[in-house]
Amino acid sequence: MTTQAPLWYREKIRDMVRARYQSNGGFLDATMTRGDGGAGVVKFPIIGRVESYELSGAIQKIQNTNPDLSMAEVRMRDFEASAWLRVQDARRQGPNEQAAVGKMLSSAIRRRRDNLKFEALDKFANDGSAGVKTIGDGSKLIDVIDLMEARAQIRGSGAEEAIWNPLPTAQFDQLTMYKEFANADYVGPKLPFGDDNGLRKKTWMGIQFLEIPDEHFVFGTGAFGTGSAGNGFNTDGYIDLFMWATDAMGNEAEWDQETPSITVHADYEGSPMLAKVGLSAASIGILPEGVKRLRVKSQVRSQRIAA
C-alpha cells in the first residue's frame, strides 16, 4: 500500500536537529535550456544560420539557403534515494526529527540534479570533437582576466541569454581580492533568487556567479576529495570550473519527485515504512561556442593580489 507522505515528512525547518553539513542541491536549476521527447529519450534541436543575398534585378531562380538542422539526443538516467522508517521510531520521534529525514531525501535528489549538469559539462569539455575551449592550464589562481576572456568569447559568438559560472567558496573569496570584482561600478543587480541563504550570488560583467558547496567540484587533479590535513582540495593540483550560456547546455527531467512517497511493508516485522524519492533526468552539451572550461589552481585560502 502506498500512501501520501505524512506532513511531518515534508520539508520543515526546526532548531533542534543538527544535520551533518552537506550540499542541499538545486543550485543550478533553470541554468540550462529544456528539451523535448519521450520514452526515455530527450532531444535538443540545433539549427544553423541563413544568410541574405542581394537581388540581381534579373528574373531567375532564388538562391536557396537552407539552414542545417541537427539533433542532440540523450537518454534519461534514473535515480532514487530511500530510507527505512520503523513505526516504533516514528512514534518516538518529534516533528523535527521526522522533518530531517524528509529533508535529507529531498536534498539527495537536488544534489543529483546539480551533479548531472556538472557531469555533462565535463563530458562536453573532454570531447575533443566538440571544440569546447579550455582557458588556463591550472598553474595560476582564478583571475578576472580569464573570466573576462571566457565571457567575451561567449558573448562574441552571439549568445544573448544569461551566462552562469558556479564557484567553490575559496575561488569566490579570491575574486573579491580584485578591485574590479569588488567595485560597484562593475556589479549588476542582485540575482532574483539571491536571497540570504548563506551562499553568495553576484552579477559581474553580466556573468551570474554562484557560490555553491565544494563537494560539487570533483574534476581536476586537485578536485574536492583529493586534499589532506583537513582540506577538501589538493592545493598542488588544479580544478576545472565551467562558464556557459543557458542555451549552450540542455537539461530535462521526465520525473522529479522530491516529496517522499511512503510505502508500508506489512510483511516485515513491525510493518516498517519505506520512504523514497526519485529522479529521471539527463543533461547534455549543445553549443560548444557557448561553453568554456576554466582550469585554475586549486586553493583553500585567498591570496593577496600585488598592487
TrEMBL record:
Identify the domain of life.
Bacteria
For this entry, the protein name equals: Major capsid protein
